[in-house]
Design goal:
By secondary structure, the chain is α/β, with parallel strands linked by helices. The chain has one domain: 3-Layer(aba) Sandwich (Rossmann fold). 38% of the residues lie in helices and 13% in strands. The structure holds adenosine-5'-triphosphate (ATP) and magnesium ion. Adenosine-5'-triphosphate binds next to helix 3, strand 7 and helix 13. One of its GO terms (cellular component) is cytoplasmic side of plasma membrane. It comes from Cryobacterium cheniae. This is MinD/ParA family protein. It holds the Pfam family AAA_31.
Amino acid sequence: MSRPRLSPWRDGVLGSVAQTSVDVETGDEDQDQPPDAVKAEFEFEDDSARGDGPAVDERWEPPTVDPPTIEVTPQPEVIPHQIIAVAAAKGGVGKTTVATNLAVGLARQAPLSVVLIDADVQFGDVAMALSLTPGRALPDVVTAAAAGDALVLKAYLTPHSDGYYVVCGAESPADGDRVTGEQLGHLIRQLAVIFRFVIIDTAPGLGEHALAALEAATDAVFLCDMSVPGARGLRKELAVLATIGILPPARHVVLNFADRVSGLSVKDVEATIGVPVDVAVPRSSLVTLSTNRGIPLLQNRKKNPASAALTELVRRFDPSASLKRGRLHRRVVVA
Ligand SMILES: Nc1ncnc2c1ncn2[C@@H]1O[C@H](COP(=O)(O)OP(=O)(O)OP(=O)(O)O)[C@@H](O)[C@H]1O
Ligand SMILES: [Mg+2]
């Protein structure tokens, strides 16, 4: 089994980033500030910044012109899709918990339109978190037969009784290690043609597969816990992604294991990350229990603070939600 690899083009890009903007080795404070591009993208929306637009000259009247005849050719229906990469700099901060609960929550809105990929190729545990026994796993799903044929691909997915599909992780780390970032990227693009929501659970850090997922993603859910290393790790991750230009268009920052005993406040974490926190999931033994039972928290529909926070995250992807995306940043409070 080899170590996680970066493809040559990635290696080059990340290598140069480490020298120019983020010294990951030394963790130098001055070099790893989020670039302005990151800060600007995450700013709270400010109504006062918006002008009233140019004044309308009421005397002006549109010229009267006969409209030309236009022949309308029927266009093939384009299915809107969202590719959601769940990522974090550190391990064990709740990526799989969030990814599996997103699948459950989004499948409730859009049954049979959600697929979850376990892209933690070596040690993925999505199948365990969902009590699934896959017939086929990630290495099968990227073989030539499925990569070239959507019907074969769909037959290789593992259905969950709650109305969504899963690409489970490899049986062994050695099998998983044979899947390349390019193959994963191709799989994501294939599934985005078939499904409304493609959710990707990733391994910690910015390995080849996490980068492939983030590059294809329309949305990223970034996680950190309530610790200084967790927050610093996320700040560096955002800075690297902004520098190499693959920050997904929409970002959602989740503070997991939120509590009042860590010695840090949400404001402290936000100050360290450099961007606002969107959702705080409280530390709860119910979450641990749900993982150990292989039943995501949102599957049992019982009300508790952790479920409420995960539901709030799901609502950020709900196209029918009345709140505009840009207005979703509100100061998060830890109960
Ligand atoms: N809010 C929470 N409260 C209590 N336990 C939690 C919470 N979130 C996650 N956990 C537990 O923490 C453990 C790690 O969570 P999870 O596997 O989702 O993290 P991960 O980021 O996917 O880890 P890895 O990097 O190893 O893939 C699990 O046992 C899970 O039940
Ligand atoms: Mg995981």
